[in-house]
Amino acid sequence: MKAEDYGFIEIVFESGRKQYQIPVYQRNYDWKKDNCLILFNDVISSYEEERSHFLGTIVQVQQDEEGGIKKYIIIDGQQRMTTVYLLLKALYDSTKDEVDKEDLRKILFNSNSETKKLAKEDKLKLKLKPIKSDNKEFLLLMDDDFDDMNQTSNIYINYYYFINLIKEASLKEITPKNILTGLKKLKIVMISLDKDKDDPQLVFERINSTGEDLTLADLVRNYLLMTDNNMDELYENYWLPIELKIGKDRLDSFVQTYLIYKLPENNKNQYQSFKNFISKSNTSHEDTLKEMKKLAKYYFAFANFSSDYSKKINNVLDGFRCLKQATIYPFFFSVFDDFSNGAISKDVLYSTLVFFLNYTIRRTITGVPTNSLRGFYKGLYKRIFVDEGSKLNYLNSIYLFMSQLQSKDAVPNDTIFKDRLMSENIYKNRDSCRFILKILENGVDSLKETVNVNKETTIEHIMPQNRDSEVWHKEIGPNYFYVYDKYLHTLGNLTLTGYNSELSDRSFLEKREMIKANSKFLILNSDITNKEYWNESAIKERAENLSNRLLNELKLPDDFKKAKHEISNSRHTLDELTDFSGMKPTSFILLGEKRDVSAGTEMLVDVCEILYEQDPEKMYYLGKENYKPDNSLKVLLTTNNKLLRVAREIKNSGIYVETNKSFNEIIKTIKRLIELFNLSSDDFLFYGDFKK
Q: Which domain holds residue 451?
């Protein structure tokens, strides 16, 4: 690496035949007029005050020559270089002095030809080659083909901005030649990297760590493209199609979802974890980009209507968008991959989506916290499909696993779901509230002619939110405040309209007539338009009817109910007051992880392994202390296996557990261990039958 102080115009554009290429991993040219004005004012000041101005650092890597032209890749400085080049072009087009024009032509072009027009095939004529997405507009500009330029591009906008600034400067008798003099006073530090010794990727990251934050998508793109020799091909074949498919506004979300899906663990520094993972797995950058391109197709369907899938599937995916539940997308990557590979049919894919949409709605309405969903969905696919055989009966494998869940991740049953629907404040989550009302009107399939429910459609309270409304005091009666506090935001008092401000605090009869005359939501409003009054009884009756309709739309599959019933007969908890003598365990679930076992000792060792993975430091501490459970003289955990009668090592850790215990003792031991690791009894379930 070599760093030297130079005049910017002299070293970059004047000295010799050369071309600077902005590589594909760089951002697009995005300087705005404010940035251009600051640069222009600095140039004018340098001319007027006859002083130099430091423009910053340029980092370059020299490449092999081509056609007698020295070629460089710009690691840092593309925004400044492109902007100065646009100013030079504006000066070239603004000057009428042929000598000055010739000076500018030599700065801009490698060719000695006097013609201004670019030969289309002469890719080396210009001294700057921007990133591909900017290069088209750049070439049109340099070829004076202004009519075909995209007038919204920063290349076009900033060029004409400089033209106008030059005109304004001429009113102050500052000529293009004077401005060029000011440009030649710009100073830079040029850092030249040795492509065989220096790591451009690391240099790029360190430079950008102190400037404007790079997005996660920027970092991943740069890593995958910059450290590969065929970066132009990788960009053309993979990254550009991903950008075009996803769209730049969703690109960062896609990359975040991909990393959650791909990386074995959740980590705050996803980018560093990604680099480590790629390095250790020996996965080529092209294979990674190929996978990302495939998953981008799925992600597009998650975020938009996609012609690659049926209307039914698109409608269900729209439900997750309405509920803003993108945390399930890493799980869906695997499910859609199974569909793409022919492992499951279109009907199985649809049923899978509907089941998890139902699950999402039930969790939302019953108030289950969603902060754990990311971790839940990240590992869900592998926990359901432990081997290829479990995919042969795809839906049953899903139903079997989901039916075994307990605590916060359990599927809320119909009784709990209906109770919460009728009694809870569902208005507090506007997204889920609007979506539930949409399902009630259109159905979960939405295949028939449906009423459009969009962001302009508002959620209307029949009994209004204004607690001091005298009209509604009289409408509800003497128990008004009780009814208001209990039912205001519940299902029975909510509907959809397109004219919320017009209904406002009007009396019930006025609202009813306006709804009759204008509302297209016939099913939602049928229990409103047939009423003569609106009180507690009317609200409860409507809530009952709507909740029954919603339960009918969101039925849990019969196979799920069957699996849940069969599981419940052999499922046991740590808190059961039962004598487990003669029990033969078949499996257990701890923290959502299911393991098959054939004996109690195997279950105890496996539980210790999972706890060790959760908190190895605590397990080491217990082992070194020769841990004995409360009121026991016998060691349970130790690093000295000679202290135990039947010792089993925990995952080659040097920590041993005593397994010479009856099944009842094993259950008590597991309960104590779970308490020691600050877990709840609800986090553990086991399955088994009594020996006959």
A: 417-553
